[in-house]
Amino acid sequence: MKPVRLSQAAAAMGGTLRGEDIEITSVSTDSRKCPPGSLFVPLVGEKADGHDYIASAAATCAAVVTHKDTDPGVPSVLVEDTLKALGDFAAWYRKEIAPMLVAVTGSVGKTTTKEMLAAMLSEKYLTACTAGNFNNHIGLPLTLLSMEEGTQAAVAEMGMNHFGEISYLSKIASPDIGLITFTGTQHIEYLGSREGIVQAKLEILHGMTPDAPIVLNGDCELLWAKRGEIGDRAVWFGIENSECTYTARDIRPTDEGTRFTLVMPGGQYDAFVPAPGIHNVKNALGAAAAASLMGVEPEKTVSALARFENTGMRQKIYNENGFTVIEDCYNAGPESMAASLEVLKNRPGRRIAVLGDMLELGEHSRELHEKALTHGALCADELYLYGSEMKRAISAAGGKARHFETHDDLAAALKEGCRGGETVLFKGSRGMKMEEALKKFLNRE
User: Which domain, by its residues, includes 187?
Assistant: First the structure.
């Protein structure tokens, strides 16, 4: 963060400065992580109120924001709502730094696409990027407030599970370019239908100027149906839809990833993404389209893509203890579950799928779990299941599946059933913590 006067922060927040007009050099919402020069913004959550930790934060931070009319012992900004103040400050700071900013959202693929795009932009610009999954009403403002002075480009990931959330984030970030990877059925419990999910994702336009381009997946039929409404500002990528401007041909899976020909305005380029699956080729196309709009040369785009490394627990493939492991434990929805199963299907030898529940599917949950297990039975030789929703849908696997009540029981049965040489996929929603079953299976504890 570039140094900012506390009076500037107060004005941006619509708050009242109390005490000395000092300089702040970072922002934190965690009282345990308040280095010298930092501004502590206490937030009110379901289980805790950050205001209860102001005294602890004040021992090391430079100033605090508060909506309680008390003396914290350091310079402060009094506001009506600390969460809103954080967003307002971030919106002001984004304009102060003024990078070209791409906002990325979607039901699946947004974090991978964000990382690919950040790598491409870094070939030409000083680039800031959302760290990890800092993509909500707290994480996105903190991402913007962490931008260094001189930042030329930024990639901001936006997540949501309710209407209005993307709209709020977009108005803070004011994207120069929007990017929607795909609209599937994730969070359908709160949004009612895929049409509702499309509507929620298109809220990304709310913070963009009327002529700002938006990069869209033309293989997503519900997004494609919006082309008349969105108009000429849309830039389309995809593989199945022949009308897409950015596409891929000659797709060739390899042990290391996927090779393909990137087709874009101005030419065709040999490309390689070191990640398996057709879905990652589509992620690469979306990133390449946004990078092109930002002025990155195609040669730099494909060079950066070839060095891409996926983050967290997202579809990592490696060998350990005599097994090929596909670790994809970060999250799961019907579309990402299907994509991971397709990756497993294309592996040689005996294939095992270890699957946990997909959450936030509401009344559609049983149907979507049954569909996933029907697909899983076609892609895997055996399925090991965890979670109540997988248990309800087990008959859809046609006798190939076993269900377990605990990670310990699942891992023990998996150890007993594996002979060595298998490819084992671990996949489930974040709340299912499938990485715990993976650790037990590989004896990492």
Answer: 98-306
